Fold these 2 entries.
Entry 1:
Amino acid sequence: MSAVAGAAAPPVNLNVVRWIGFQTIVIREYGRIIRIWGQTIVPSVVTATLYFVIFGSLIGRRVGAMGGFDYKQYIAPGLIMMSVITNSYGNVVASFFGAKFGKHVEEMLVSPLPNWVIVAGYAAGGVVRGLLVGAAVTVVSLLFTHLSVQHLPVIVAAGLLTSLIFALGGFLNALFAKNFDQVNWIPTFVLTPLTYFGGVFYSVTLLPQWAQQVSYVNPILHMVNAFRFGFLGVSDVSVGLAFALMLAAAAALFAIAVALMNRGAGIRE
Amino acid sequence: MNALSVRGLTKTYRNGVQALSGVDLEVERGDFFALLGPNGAGKTTLIGIITSLVNKTGGEARVFGYDIDREPEAAKACIGIVPQELNFNMFESPYTIVVNQAGFYGIPRAVARERAEKYLKQLQLWDKRRGISRALSGGMKRRLMIARALMHEPRLLILDEPTAGVDIEIRRSMWEFLREINARGTTIILTTHYLEEAETLCRNIAIISGGRIVERDRMSSLLRRLHVATFVLNLRDSLSVAPRLDGYVTTLVDDHTLEVEVSAEESLNDIFARLTALGIEVLSMRNKVNRLEEIFMQLVEGRGTAGEGAHGEAAPAQPATAPAGTGQEASAAAAARLPAGARR
C-alpha cells in the first residue's frame, strides 16, 4: 500500500453537502429498485394484470357500468393508485429497515447530512418506485381498456402526493420496526384493508349511508378519487378537500419523521 | 485547537448501565493516538458519541473546535470512522459503497469516482470493485471500511479495532498505510486489542476502564515507567534446577527454558556473565510479555501502578500488590495509585 494524499479541509458549504447527499440517496434507492426489479417492479405488474383479467374481464362483464363508465375503465385509476401506494410504502420500509438491520444506516448517520435530508432522500426514493410501478401498471391498463386524460395536472399531483405520503409512512414504520414481522404488520393489517375499502373497485355511492360516512374517514378513498378525477372527470369526494388532506398529511408525516430522527428514535442508543 | 476535545462526557444507557462516567480527553491535531481499554470499558460508546451514533447523557465534545451539538454537520464533516462492526451493505459492490459514501459528504460524483479508484487501489481492492461485498474476505471487508472512511479525506480518522481478524501480512501493510496517512497530516485515533499495534504506531495513549480515563500519557513515557521485564532464555543444555543468580528472580520453566526478571537499572550483560560463569549457554532470548500489555493489565486490573512492581535484590516473583478488581472501582483504584503527574 502506498501513501495517500494529505488530509484536506472539510467541505464547509453545507448546502452543497445537502444537495449532493440528497441526490446520492435517491440514486442509491433507484439503483436498488433496478437491481432487484424482480422484487420491486414485476409483482405489482403481475397483480394488476390478474385484477384486470379477473375483475375487469371475467366479473366486470356482469357488473356492467360503474359511475357511468365501463367497469375496467373505472377500476384502472384505482389499480394504478393501489400499486403506487403499496410500492412507495414498501420501498422505504424495506430499504430503511434493511439499512437499520444491516447497520449501513450508520453510513448516513455519521455523515454531515442533516436528518431532514435523509428523510427527504428516502421519501424521494419511495416516490420514484411508486411512480415507476404506477407507470408500468398504466401500460398494463392500456392493454385492457381505454384511459382518457381529463386533468393531467391532477393526475400528476395526486400521484406524487400519494406516493410521498406512503413513502413517509413507510419510513415511520421502518423507524419503529424492531424485526421483519413489524415491517409487515402495517401493510397487512392497515394498508391492504384501507386500500380495498378505498373505492378502488367500487363507487362509495353504492354503499349504505352509514358505510359511506365511514368510508370518508379513509384517506385512501380521497386519494383514489382525486386520481380517478384526473382520468375520468368524476369523483365521490371533493377533489379540493382531497388535495388539502394530502398536503396536510405529507407535511405532518415529514415533520414527525424528522422529529423522531432528531430524537434518535429507533436508530440511536 | 485540538483535533478532539472531550469534557465531562457521561453516558447512562436506558437499562441503567453507566458506560461513561465523566471522560475528559484531548487529542492534538496530527497525533496518532491510542485509546485502549478492556471489553466494555466505554471505548465504543465514546467513539459513538463523537460520531453521533450514540446520544450522550452529559458533557461536551468538540472536533477541530466544532461542537458536536451546536455544529454537528461541520463536526461530522471532519471525521472519518472505521467502526468495529461491519456496517456496509453486503449486497452492494465495493465501488458503489465508497462512491455513495463520498456523496453523503458532498463530494461530487466525478471526484468520488477518481477517489474510489485511488483508495480501492491503495487498499488492494480494485480488482474486487464490481462483485458484491459479501463475497469479500474478512481482511478485505476491513480494508473496504478504511477506503470508505477516507473518501472525503477526513482530518480526523477514528479506527475502532481496524485489524481485528486480519492476518499478519495485511495487518503490517495496513500499519504502513496508516502511518503514511498520519504523516501527511491526518489525526488518527486507534482502538485495538493488539497492544503491539498501539505500541508500534501511536505517539500518545489513553487507557479507559470502567467508563473513565485511567491513564493519559506519551507512549514512550508510559513504557519507561515499567521497571521490570521478564526475559525467557532458551538454553543449549538441559538443567534440572534453576540456577541461583543473586539479585535476580529465576524460574526454570522446563529443562531448556529459564525465565529471569530484570529491573530497568540492571544490565543484561551482568546476567550473561553470571550464566557463562556457571557454564550455561544461552541460544536465544525473548521478552516474556509485551511491555504495553504489562502496563495495561496493571492499570485495568488494579494490580498496581506501572513501575511500582517490586524488584531488585533477591526479590521473589511479585504477585499483584492489590486485589484484582473489575470495572469502575478497580479503575479508580488504579488511577489513584498513579503518580500525580501521570494522571490527567
Entry 2:
Amino acid sequence: MAIQDYFLPKSLEQALDLLTEHGPALLVMAGGTIAMPLINDGISMPEKVMGLRHAGLNTVRRQNGTLVVGATTTLTQLAQQTDIPMLQEAVRHIGGWQIRNMGTVGGNLFAPPPAGDLAVALLALDATVVLASKQRGRRTVPLAEFFTGFMTTALAPDELVAELHIPLPRGKTSYIKYARKHANTPAIVTVAAHVLTEAGKVVDARLALNAVGPHPIRARRAEQLLLGAPLNAETIAGAAKEAAAECEPFTDAIATDWYRRRMTEVFVRRALERIAE
Amino acid sequence: MASRIVAFNLNGRDVEVMVKPLTTLQTVLREHLHLTATKSGCRQGGCGTCTVLVNGEPMLSCLLPVEDIAGQQVVTLEGITPVEGLHPIQQAFFDNYAIQCGYCSPGMIMIIKALLDRNPNPTRQEVMDAIAGNVCRCTGYESILRAAEDAARRLQSA
C-alpha cells in the first residue's frame, strides 16, 4: 500500500485537528530521522503521514528559571540557542551535522535505545513534557513518567508533544557518552548526572542512563546512596556499583549486555568524579 | 492520492516537480530531474552521501520529503560545479587523491562546502567534526582531510 497522503500542518492546532480526524492510522514525524529510514526500507508502510516541520513548534524561550523548548526545535537550534553545558554536550554527541540539523528535541523522546542521547540529558535535568490534545487541552508529565517501556510512552493516541520544560540546573552536571567511535555512533552507555551539594553533602542527585534499559532510565537506587552523603571516592564507588546492578542492559550489534553493565559502573564513576572535582 | 506540485529553488533556478505524497528530495533530484551527482547510499541517514544544502544547511536528501522544502533554496554538487573546470573543493579532492571510488565524494564535498562557508580556516578537528556524518569506505579519511585543508587554502587565496 503506497502512502496515500502527507500532511504538513502550519500550526499545532491544525496538527491536532488532523490527528483527531485520522486517528492512530496517522504516522507523526518531525525531522524524519526515525520514521523516514523505516519507510525507505519498507519496514514501516503507513498510509497517512503528518510532518511537523512547519507546525511552528521550533521556538526556545526562557520563562522563570525554566527553558521552554518547542518539540520540533532541531538539535542544532537547541545547541545554538541555549547555554546549558549538559545540553551542548548531549547534542555534540548525537549523529553527524546533517542529523543534528534534522532531528528534533521532541523526536528524540521517541528514539529507541541505544538512540535517545538527548532524552537522557533531559531526564537528568528533570524536564517535563507538555502534551497537547484537541479535546482535553494540555497536560504536563514529568519525563521520568513519560517513558513507560520499550518504544512505549504516556502519550495518548490523540496527543502530540508540544514542548519541553527544562529547569535550569542548580547543581553540577556531567555527561559522558561511551561508544565505539568518537562521533556519529550508537552508545554503549550514556551517563547524564546532576548533583547538588550543600555543606559537603549531596542534597539532590539525578543519575540518568541510556542504552542500558528499554528507554532512558533513572538509576534511583544509586541516587539514594548519594543523598545525604559526601561526594567522595567511597560514595561514588558505591553508587556506580549500584547503578550497574540496577540497570537493564541489552545485547545488540554494538555491545553485549555483560559489557554494557560493566561499562555502566565505570562511566557512572567517571561522571560523578567529574562533578566531585 | 493525487500528486502535488512542489516549487523550490534548485542551484539558483526555480523548479517545479509533480510528486506523490512523501517523495524525498533525493528521489526528486535523481529520478525526476536526473541530477545524479547526489548519490543514493543507505537511505537510512547513516552514510551522508546524499547530503545537499537547504538554505545553506547540510541536510540528508534521503530523509527529507520534498514538500517540506517548498519555496526554499537547495544546492547540490551540480550547483557548485562551474561550466568549465572544477570548484576549488573538487580540484583539491582531485589533487589530493581524495576520490577513489567517488561514491562518498558528493556528500563529502557538500559538507566541506558548508563548513568552509562558515569557517574559512578550520582546524583538522573541526573538519573531522564536520564530516563525522559522512562515511567513506575506500579512499580513506586522511586524504579527504588533506583535501579539505587544501581547499580552505585555495579558497582563501582565490
